[in-house]
Design a protein that fits this description.
By secondary structure, the chain is an alpha+beta fold. The protein has helices at about 1-20, 55-65, 70-85, 120-130; strands at about 30, 35-40, 45-50, 85-90, 100-105.
Length: about 140
Amino acid sequence: MDDLVQWLRAQLDEDERIARAATRGPWVQSGIGDYGWTVDFGRPGAGVETADTEQGLADADFIAAHNPARVLREIESKRELVKLHSRATLRAGGGAQYFGTTTVCRSCEPDHQFPELSWPCPTLRLLTAPYSGRDGYREEWAP
């Protein structure tokens, strides 16, 4: 399952590349423009307009809320979660009735009492869910 971590890290790298290529901002929903609701990207002439409708307003609010700075903070948080939920190998004697070796999550199973809780843990699986539509995703990684 190291493939899951490698694939997840590649998705985070791609998100970071996209966020860093975008206009830094700050991004703000700045009201109604000539044709619809405007999201200003923090420099003259940089921004977008959505439709002059309630849906256009919702779209403008969404765009402004998902600015590059926020996305980069989210990516860093996810990378830290991946580090926290690294794998550990249990050897004979780990757990009350367990003999042999198995792999568990260092964070979810720090005391090694439940070797049936294998790695990748539910946390790592949940982190893959937003990327399930991307190439390389495996259904076996589903939460």
